[in-house]
Amino acid sequence: MIINKLTPIVLSLLLLSACSTKKVATPMSDSNSTTTQIHRITNTLESSILVHTPKENHNLRNEDHILTTGLSGYFSGNYKLMNFIDRMHNEHQFDREYLYGLFSNAQHMDQPIEACDTPNKNPRCNTVIKPQGKWDRYRGMFIYERNINRGITFWEEHENTLNKAYQQYGVLPEFIVGILGIETAYGVNFGKKKVIDVLTTKAMLPNRRENFYTNQLEKFLLMTRQSNLDASILMGSNAGAMGYGQFIASSYLEFAVDFNGDGVVDLWNADDAIGSVANYFSRNGWNRNIRQVAVRAKYKGNRFKRLKTGYKTKYSQYKLRKKYKITPRTHLSYRGPVSLIKLPKYSYDELWLGTHNFRVITTYNHSTFYGMAVFQLGQAVKARRYGR
Fold it and tell me: What amino acid positions are annotated as catalytic residues?
């Protein structure tokens, strides 16, 4: 009776033992005691578990082991990076050994994560420059004598390319000159960080924007392969923005053009950068028939608080004039809705009316101050160059 009751238990143990990598002995005959049978089966199971577990783990982690031995440096053992390398190999046919070498030399960047909205089109990752302090303080960071002179020199050296960009995309030279002067002071400051270091750190280490930077790292590798650039040496900003116009990798792929016709898209080349900025504006709605970007307005008082201001605003010019007595100081040929732009100064607020093309400029960087700095720097360089 005892044997009959124990039979199901013994059979269950035998079934479990069949999963092990060690051969299990044939069940004992009825002449052996049930206790002896259970004892031997139990020993067999324990032995099989000891053999089975490490072997199974070894098989499951075999690929990880290969990846670990192929990746050294600071990010060795980073499973997210190893999975990323595997995906780049499988989806985009990158050579694993090339990626192992590239990321083995990548360095950790000990830097704060920059505030940045989700970018789809913005070459600067929609980095928000919040107006801190007075307009004059912000303006002074970009519009100063030395930078104006740099802009004049740049315009003179690349006049033919700027004119070509205008003919092809309809963007006047002064606005391209304004962008390049604000972004890199006409190539003086491309950035002091290796792009591969910045993107790897921000993509592979925990932070709230790691998914965005993982996407940018993928685009960066595709970009460098497509343009035949060395991904290990390219320099950029703390956010991984590159070249004269400080494009992030996704914008590089989407908007950068080979404007000098040498077969390479290179935004560290001034000609390609000029064409790419013009293409960016054109693709984001630039209207070549609107030549005015902003016109200063008149209003009653020294401080303006009556209406909401900023690049996102749109007001009827008729309503501004009739109801609020806000009128342009000079002739404004543009007849569409205008943005109401307030520039706080020490003792009063300047008020400006921004046209459709002003709003296009702010797609490059979502900031009213940024858009006005681009506009005013371009105007300052143009006035100095042509004496008006």
Answer: 183
